Records
---
Amino acid sequence: MSAELSRRAGHYAAAVAERLLEADLPVTGIQSCGPWRDTDGEYLDVEAAISFTQAFQDQHGGGDCGLHWAATSGWCLYTADKEDRYLSGVRWPGAGLLPEPRIVTAFVDAFRLDPAGAGTSEQPPSYRQEGHDFPTLLESLAPYLPAQPYLFEEPQIRFADCTDAPTKTACTGHSSPAPPTP
């Protein structure tokens, strides 16, 4: 189940990255992982990440800057100063565990215009208990899987195909339909 959770989280990140690219935001990569234990034995839940160009990072403190999705708290945009090895700024959009890609894109656009005014820097929200209810999470991520014939394609290939496309709209062949609105 861990591998499938990682794959589906990766496709969700790829769907968000596709929207970011369509909005001319400088995305360079995606990654995801399923639940696992690190070398210290600490349990980590399902996660995904989207990275930006160095120029984007330089505009926002000069250190590491990117989007991180946790299966407990949703998306956050993090920044770190050049001198700071730790995160010096985290902004949460507060849009739920799985906001539609267009909502994440609007959040990043708002951050570019006004970093301090985008989202909130308060404690991370909690939408799901860590390590629990994986079948529901799998089902919730399913709408972001690509349609046939790409259903079994890896998320990184989907992202690479999108970034290699002559136009940003060429990646929409891999895009999943929008999840149903509650």
Note: The first strand starts at residue 27 and ends at 33.
---
Amino acid sequence: MSETMIDMKVLRIFEGELEHAIKCRCVEPCSTEEYINEMEDIITRTRIVSSKKDTYKEEFVANQLVEAQINPSLSTKMRHELIDVLYTYNNAFASDNEPLGAIKGHEVDITLNIDRPYPPVLRRPAYPASPRAREALEKHIQ
């Protein structure tokens, strides 16, 4: 895991409190200057990661959710939460590149038996009816 991802995790664990995050990164007690440098480093790294994620999310919304019809009565917060969930789990949904149904490693060959002699199911008439019912159907059709 990269340092940036570790910084993001530490910030998430301590709910964004930089002081706790820096204390976790500094093994030894650090000077004020080192403390400030660590703080700036963490802030810079997390901003870079956040901006990259936002760019990818914007592309996802522009490309994948163009035709999506999201309930207009949702609040802005709920709409953003829904988009976050869709973005986070976008691999669970079908796309142009990977449609659903193609599960690698679980391919199945289905062979249809259409050669003579036909299987009993194929020998049956399409709409089985007794002779009396067949007469009534023919009268009704004419």
Note: DSSP finds six helices and no strands in the chain.
---
Amino acid sequence: MNNTEMDINWTDVACGSAASSWNGYTYQGKVAMYTMLCLINQIGAGNEDVNNYTLEIELFEDFCIKYKGDYYSIHQVKSYQDKETIGGYKATVLELLGKTIIQPSVKEASLHTAINIKEFTVENLKNDLIAYVPRKKKDLFNHFKKLLFEEGRFEGAWSKLNINQHDGKINVNRVVQVDEINNRIKEQLKIFLQNDTHRSPSSISVENLDYAYSNLLHTVNNLIADIHLKRQSDPVITFNKVLEILQSENVFNLTSETVASLLMDDLTTYFEEYCEEQGIDLELEEEKAKIWIHHIDVLKLLTPEDFVLICRKIAPNIKMKRSDSISIAEYKRLIDQHGVKQMLFECLFTFHHMLETATLKNDILLIKKNKVASLITLILNSGRNACSTVGKDIFNNFNNDESLLELLFEVETYINKSINEEYKGTITEVESDIDYKSREKFTGPKKIKFMDIKSAMEEFRSNE
């Protein structure tokens, strides 16, 4: 090894190559949370040693577990649905192997995948890695190849790598399908709560598990956001902090944060499914990645209450009870997966040039042209009576929810899947505390227009 290479801090190089792209609601973020919970349950919440562990995100690797400040395990997460052979993961394997050498404290390196990788021989993989020509991180990867093959350190590094396996230093399933990860997290939550001697067994209901899951997700996501925004200099989440959340009396509370977290979780999950179904690889399609990140970041800046209101805004025909006892299932009707995939995501990518400047709550997902405001909705209704059915539902909501009415009053056109008609309704009264003069502004007859997505594409693409 020449003097120049000896002077390079390869850990700094490896850390500098990481990108801040995920959050607590993505598959990567959830795999990190799942792994952390598995290790907490493995160690035992009552074991003081658990306080020595931290979760580091997107620095040295996708995520790492550190013990007393040193790297204990390193992890890469891949959600590919079409890469069943090890050949699709050559760069990942090379990187994980190399990093176990430049950080000797690493006890284990894990490749987490959404599908099982077919059997392969180590010798064939080794030959493939020797022949591999990196297109990115060239200096780093070439250094790893030198360490592994010229210095003969492959076998030692290989002994630390876990692919497909369940057991290891951390007992975690390393193959978890995208649509299974939520349940895996809840399984570990249930184990933790059942072992918590301060909890009554009767408190661990399916509904309370949903609340605990959502509240944990919300808090961890906020911690990740603080790390991305550099509010926290060290990009780690302590296991002790997670224990505080799970042992808190508030973990089973249904709050606006709980609801917003569940809806954001659904939205993010459906987007990952949409990308998979449409063959969209955000690592390769940078423009689409940029569009999605922009809009999701705008939504994350909203208060939990305002985010829930935006979900109501794009589902204006869904009736919600005005009650403190609304169930999670009822809230989840606002983010219909078919409406989100067929309408919201399609419209974001198609009309992003007309949406990207929106930052105010009233303007989010609103297209303005010639002083006419058109709203992107999740409405999929079709058929002869679709217009009257949806129209009645919207006006019923107008007459029963002043916050929704104020948010939608300026909207003239509702972009939807199939309806291309006008509907005339009457706002008879507004149940609110607003003064009489303001209330008078909202009451009376009102006409709204429904525009199907095909017509909207012609209307708003024509002036690009």
Note: The two ends are 56 Å apart (CA to CA).
---
Amino acid sequence: MVAFAVGGLLGDTIFHLLPEIFLGEAAPDHARFVMVDPNKNLLLGVAILVGFLTFVAMDKTLRIATGGEGGHDHSHTHKSEEEEEVKRIEPSAETSSVDAPRETNGSIRSRKGGQDKHKDLEILEDMSALRLDPERVGQLWNMREPGRANRWLSEVLEKDDDSGVTQIAIWKSYESAFKPNRDVPVLEATILIHNASKIFENASAQIIEGPEKKFIIKGVRPRSMPKKVEESPVQPMAREVKQSLKPEIPASEPSQSIRLSAYLNLIADFTHNITDGLALSSSFYASPTLGATTTVAVFFHEIPHEVGDFALLIQSGFSKRKAMGAQFVTALGAFLGTCLGIAVQELGKADSGSGNSAGGMNPGGFFGTGLTWGDMLLPFTAGTFLYVGTVAVIPELLETGPNQREETRKTLSQFMAMFLGAGIMLA
């Protein structure tokens, strides 16, 4: 449905709105002469660019204010700051440890220094040992992938050459924490495991042979992993020395910071809804068809965001009633934006009318072209529509998974929906 709305929005903007900006309204029953005025066309193009860049600036400002984690984030970073921070957390030098007999959950053959040695690993299979507290989960809720997954891995796991964690425990724990979030889809299991083997030095995905074959990440353990049943007298000292050499991981931020993030997110939502109201009112002034397609695009685009914002408020300590009330207040921003848009459009009409009453000459026009503020509203609106239809929505259509056949089928259906939406605008 999002693809259909994008096709309709872009189709109506390109097929109807832009020609009307440069050529005027269509009048089939009357002859029409178009005066070529390069300065006028240039100013109209600048107004389109200003509309586009205005929404870029507003979106960027909201992302900076919310730390890039909340609000309406559509960024797709290839190497995010979260990944860089994860790499800085891990130690660069190997820490020494004393090997001693321990309880055997499985065995694996590893090669060190050109020699084969049998090593008994402590393998954790309990997914509950990999869970973060609800406050920290709330902070990670709306981060983009793979930054969120990498940050989560760095906070629930630590390096330990003598331990391992089953892959199913890692995936199930991550899925249970973030699967309800529809705004930021959960990272695929294979990518999550691959990232875990890259984040931690000497960690690798391997198979443990035994009565039941186990797929594990060797070289890591949970940070809250319980003590082993059997330990030699030298093991506690060795583990204490090993822990002292590990860098300290920053503790979870206090609840005050989480609440601040939630309030910033509410402010961002309110401001964003104002821009939605401006876009909706301007689109209906342009044409009823464009208004309808813009409404559909905004509606289906906002549903997953509102669900994600509601979950973030709950995680930040809001009750369900207070969270719903806060969401209702932010929704009022759309009505405020609509009223502002109507006022601007009516003022623009009045300005244009006064110019026409003076014999078609408007000495206050821009650069001698006769263009008024009212004439600049339509191209400004076209620029905002281009932003909504491209930067704000299309990145959602570009998200793909590892299943090539399924993604190919989904991509074809999305293109068909976009062509259908654009084709309706031609009718």
Note: The first helix runs from residue 2 to 23.
